[in-house]
Amino acid sequence: MPAAQYYADEQAQCDTGHKPGDLDPKQVALTFISQYFGHEGVTLGSVTVGSVPPTEKKPLATADLNRDDRPETLRLDKSNMDIDKGDFVTLRVYDSTGKALWSEDAGLSHAGWNSLFLTELDGAPYLLRYNPGMWQGSCVYTYTLFTLEDGKEKDFLTKTLSFDINGTKPFDVPAMITFADEVNALLQKSTLLISSEGGGYSFGPTPADSFYERYSWLDGEPSLYTADDDLKTRLDKYSAHAVENLIKS
Question: Where is the composition biased (Basic and acidic residues) (predicted)?
């Protein structure tokens, strides 16, 4: 992908509300070099040439996800981490015999954004998928906590929240607060495996702190808030502002 096209695609995400604010051209350049040329240690001053291994030799984690009392192995497959191959990374789970049990992709195109975590709840491991989706201001946020019993996804807990930031109707603020509290409680007990949320890769295993839900698009209207506003107040103010603007238009 040409650098100019990459920058245009990233800016389009800002313009349509998928990412708040304007882009930092320098940061976009660093991301482009890192993701598309496989360089490591990229800074404004230097580029350390490295390689992106097609398949991780060291497993991300081991966990008994299919409940057979034997740990499965979780690995990242980066063999398609190239724009000509679709630009996606695959999380693969293998059973205790080395047989492929399950897999799921996370890609850089908006439709392919995905985040997967390993979560421990009451001493048992689960996979957590969290997708806070937005399409031109229409939002569908979904989290699913699941196991892989019999090699298939078995939902343990799932929830979806739908809302619109264009002012078509006021927010259900209590529902939004409850949803954020629930997903953040799960993320507190989670380790990131792979994410392509926002059009950039994040690889685990790392803490999931940076993925806590705080409705970051609220930051696009900083003049609405004061420094001590909590999340409820920020949502109330944004909702009133969006509804009022739609009525005026």
Answer: 55-69
